[in-house]
Amino acid sequence: MPTRDATALSVSDLNRRARQALEQDLGEVWVEGELSGVSRPASGHVYFTLKDERAQLRCALFRTRARFVAAPLRDGDRVKVRGRVSLFEPRGDYQLIAEAVQAAGEGELLAAFERLKARLDAEGVFANARALPCPPRHLLVLTSPTGAAIRDVLAVLGARWPLVRVTLIPVPVQGREAAPAMIAALGLLNRQSALDPGRDAILVTRGGGSLEDLWAFNDEHLARAILHSRLPVMSAVGHEVDVTLADFAADRRAPTPSAAAEQLVPDRRELLQRLRDLERRLARAQRARLDTEAQRLDHLRARLRHPGEVLAFRRRQLEQLDGRLQRAMAARLATERRHQDRLARRLARRAPGQRLVEAEARLARARQRLQQAMPRELTRHRERLAAVSRELQAVSPLAVLGRGYAILENDAGRVVRRAADTRPGERLAARLGEGRLALEVLPDGDAAD
């Protein structure tokens, strides 16, 4: 039994000490289990129970973190929950205050990121591809004023191109206020760019962090604000392995803040070296050009003569050309006269009257030859025809018939060669040397009609 003066704790004191002990000893943990009893009151918080085969744990996912869970939480889903173990003092309930919920085997934030990325890509939010000025005259940097990103950017810009003007636009780069602040800053900068044309590029940047830390740069409205920015935007969020929707929506992406500064401005040392090389090339080209022109001037000076000499030379050339022209004209006239004489003689020989006389003589001779040749040809053809007629008569069957023979034919026109080929009463035709006879076959012993 306790003594009378023993100090008793109140229920609230005990619950507070238990909450503090749980939070200090366990800290942040990952717990995997099955969802059960998921409820969503009007406050926006999400309450559920995480259980396995032997135990269960009550969990609370407050509204500020619930908006990062894109997929709905459903009873029976197996998830991994990151949070801190605590105790709800008014009821003494032991619970897990959830910070993030992932599908078991796949990060829920990453799944939400991929779904939102696919939808924005289909809408054309990632179609920006404008060229950024290099170097920009006035660079506007949206980032945290206390982060390492602005220090890296300023250090690289100062080393590579100190002439660039940089204006820091301080905005939160983590948490629920980050995306609205950056959207508002982008809108303000675009409105002010009409009044200050010297502003020509925007850099949105921050250092590395977890997926939850960088989640503000995956905000859909921030991606659309970058798309509609009149000023070209470069995004450099996190490390090389980190990729956000702001990177896809920007006109250009850099893997780190330092790399962004290197892409935005040239290296003055490289430019100075290139300028020195060009200066040396220009000096060599200038000397070579001067030498060439000096030689050309000497050549032209050597060719230059007094105008009187040139006129005298041209006068002599003119006289020579005139003499050549006169001689060429005389020779051409003589040639044409000889050619005309030859044509006249040929024409005289081929006068139409003379050709008619010659043609008439040739025609008379041809007529005389024709008249002499026709009787001879007729006589020759008659003799040949008589010889052919005699040969034909010698082999003709009609000659045989003329000697008293006859050819018998039946009704079908076939020649009858044997008596056996006929029958009594059959009518035959007899072809004689002159004319034909109609006959009838009689039986043996009968006399013919």
From TrEMBL:
<dbReference type="GO" id="GO:0008855">
    <property type="term" value="F:exodeoxyribonuclease VII activity"/>
</dbReference>
<comment type="similarity">
    <text>Belongs to the XseA family.</text>
</comment>
<keyword id="KW-0269">Exonuclease</keyword>
<dbReference type="InterPro" id="IPR003753">
    <property type="entry name" value="Exonuc_VII_L"/>
</dbReference>
<keyword id="KW-0175">Coiled coil</keyword>
<keyword id="KW-0540">Nuclease</keyword>
<feature type="domain" description="Exonuclease VII large subunit C-terminal">
    <location>
        <begin position="128"/>
        <end position="438"/>
    </location>
</feature>
<keyword id="KW-0963">Cytoplasm</keyword>
<dbReference type="Pfam" id="PF02601">
    <property type="entry name" value="Exonuc_VII_L"/>
</dbReference>
<protein>
    <recommendedName>
        <fullName>Exodeoxyribonuclease 7 large subunit</fullName>
        <ecNumber>3.1.11.6</ecNumber>
    </recommendedName>
</protein>
<dbReference type="Pfam" id="PF13742">
    <property type="entry name" value="tRNA_anti_2"/>
</dbReference>
<dbReference type="InterPro" id="IPR020579">
    <property type="entry name" value="Exonuc_VII_lsu_C"/>
</dbReference>
<feature type="domain" description="OB-fold nucleic acid binding">
    <location>
        <begin position="9"/>
        <end position="101"/>
    </location>
</feature>
<keyword id="KW-0378">Hydrolase</keyword>
<comment type="subunit">
    <text>Heterooligomer composed of large and small subunits.</text>
</comment>
<comment type="function">
    <text>Bidirectionally degrades single-stranded DNA into large acid-insoluble oligonucleotides, which are then degraded further into small acid-soluble oligonucleotides.</text>
</comment>
<dbReference type="InterPro" id="IPR025824">
    <property type="entry name" value="OB-fold_nuc-bd_dom"/>
</dbReference>
<feature type="coiled-coil region">
    <location>
        <begin position="268"/>
        <end position="295"/>
    </location>
</feature>
